[in-house]
Specification:
Pfam families: OSCP (PF00213). By secondary structure, the chain is an alpha+beta fold.
Length: 135
Amino acid sequence: MSKFTVSQYAAAYQAAVKDKTGKDREEIAYQLIKLLARQRRIKMITRIISALERLIAEAGGPMVVEVKSVKTMDEQTSLKLKQQLEKFLNRPVKIRSQASPRILAGVKIQVGDQLVDNSLASRLNDLKQQLLTNF
């Protein structure tokens, strides 16, 4: 049985659902999950989704922006950030917000392969590095 890469699964799924809607897309997703489970590769699903999101963004679809903060953003804050990013990036954006207990304060924003780390942990680490190199 051949095993495919994350990118190959994502590309195959994208091609399979291209002209499909609703129930047909759900069935294709269900079949992919069954296949991954049968191959004992179900842990790949999150990486396949990320690869699929990259393919969609490359084709001009919405770019997924990961936002990590102490708590998930409320709708109003998420909408404001979405509007600002769409204006800045000049393309549609989809915000994925999640809470991260490692972030004491501040926020981390991942846009494609760019990371904006404005977290307290990052700032404290920078301060620590400065203190170690200056003394």
